[in-house]
Amino acid sequence: MANFTDLIFVSNGDLQSVAAELTSALGVTLERHESWYRGGDYLLSTGGFGEERTSVQRNAEMDELAEPDYPDALTLVRVEGTSRPEEIEHRLGQTSLTLIRRSTWDEPDRGK
After folding, report:
1. Do 84 and 28 meet the contact criterion of CB atoms below 8 Å apart?
2. CA distance 62 to 25
3. Most buried by CB count within 10 Å: which residue of 62, 64, 66, 76?
4. Is the pLDDT of residue 42 over 50?
C-alpha cells in the first residue's frame, strides 16, 4: 500500500506571483484553465512527480469563499496525491504560502 497526501496552502499573492513561486520551488509547469466553479482563471500542473497534481486558484468557488476560515487569503494552492508531503511542505515553507490543511490516506497497490 502507498500513502498519499493532499496539502492545501493559502497566500495573499495573486495567481501569477504564486505560480512563479511554485515553478521555482517545485519545478512544476502550470497551465491556465477557466472554471466558474473555481472563480474564473486557475492554473493546473502538467506532468509532475508521479500522481501528484498541483492547482492554483482564487479563494473563491461558485461566488463563495473556497476557504471561509481564511477570508483574507487571495489564493489557494492544492497539492493533491503527493507521496512526498514533507518535501513539499519544506519547499513551500520557503515561499509566501502557508499550510492550512494536510490529509493522508492509504491507497491499495494498483497491482504493481
Report:
1. no
2. 30
3. 76
4. yes
Number of residues that this document lists for the chain: 112
Q: How confident is the model at residue 51 (pLDDT cuts 50, 70, 90)?
A: confident
The SS3 assignment for 2 reads strand
Long-range contacts of the stretch 27-30 (C-beta < 8 A, 24+): 28/54, 30/54, 30/56
Contacts of 24 (CB under 8 A, 6+ apart): none
Residue 27, C-beta contacts closer than 8 angstroms, at least 6 positions apart: none
pLDDT recorded at residue 36? 78
Average pLDDT of span 51-61: 89
**Alpha-carbon dihedral 84, 24, 8, 89, rounded to 10 degrees:** 40
State which amino acid sits at residue 42: Y
Strand arrangement, sheet containing 2-11: 29-35, 40-46, 53-58, 75-82, 2-11, 98-107
Distance CA(76)–CA(65), nearest Å, equals 11
